Structures are given as C-alpha cells and as structure tokens.
Amino acid sequence: MDGRSIIGSKTEVLRRAGFQSRPASNRGMDGIPNRRERYYTTYSYHTMRPNLWAEIRYRSDRIAAVLERKWLLSVILFAEIYLAITAFHALRRFWYDELFTFYMCRLPSMSAVWSAMKDGADLNPPLFYVVTRACQAAFGDSELVTRLPAILGFLVMSLCIFHFVSRFGSRLAGLAAMTFPVIDRKSVV
Q: Model's pTM, two decimal places?
C-alpha cells in the first residue's frame, strides 16, 4: 500500500468530516493574499477550525461591501421603515407641547398666530406654524397630520446627514450616521 489506510488518509477523513486544514499558502494565484485566506490564518490547535472572530470580520466585510454597492436601496428601505414606524406612533394622543401647536394652528389667521407668539404662547419658529397650518388645511385636523411636518423634517435631516457624511467618507459611514438620530431615544417621535 502507499501509506493509506482503508478509510483514507488523516487529512481526507478530517476534510470529509467538515474540518478545514490550514492552507499551504495564504497567497492567491497572483501572489496577493486572498481576503478569505487572510482571515483564516489563525486556527485553533485542537479543532483545526478557523478563528471565530476572523470569520465574523470576514462576513461583516462582505455585508459592508454589499451595503456600499446597494446604498440607494438601503436609503429607501430606511425611509420606508422610518415612515411606517412614525406613522404608527403618530396616531397617539397629543402631548402637552403638541397641544399648543395644535391650538395655535387653529387660530383664525396668521396675524393671530403672530400675536400669540409675541405673547410667548409657544417658542417654535413661525415657518413651522405656516407649514402645519397648510397641512391641516389640506388633510384635516388629526394627530398624524399635525405631526406630519415634524416627521418629514426629521426624515429630510436624516437624508442630509447621509449626504454630508457620505460625501466626505464612505456610503457605509453615511448609512450609519443616518441611523444615529433614529436610535437616540430622545429623538423618537
């Protein structure tokens, strides 16, 4: 016999069992290390399996590469999820400060809103009341319609954060920066 047993050599048995052996070289055909082989250089002595953290790093790099390529899909998905969740939460009853906005927008004219602002009824900027009055005139006086300018303003802010960060960094950094204001518990509608 040529040194093999009936069941095969030790490396063949381990390969059939699902274990990987250490590659002979961590370089590809062109002499440059392959990404996967570069992460698989650290092996556990007893199991001959790759390092868990190296596998996690490899997979996270692959996910990052996909997000970098399909950034527009990620942004659209973010906007859809944000609008669905905030539209659901916007159906709650008004909070104390939102009642001021609601009643100030129901004043008969914009001059009445200006005089109420001079008296210190609420501290929001006047353009906010103009936009909220326009939304209430177009769609009615519900909780969702009263909160609609703030919801859309927050979405525009998140998209601007994505644009500014991805302009000076990567698109993946822009996607991460865009989600930070949403994750903050104080900024949730």
A: 0.63
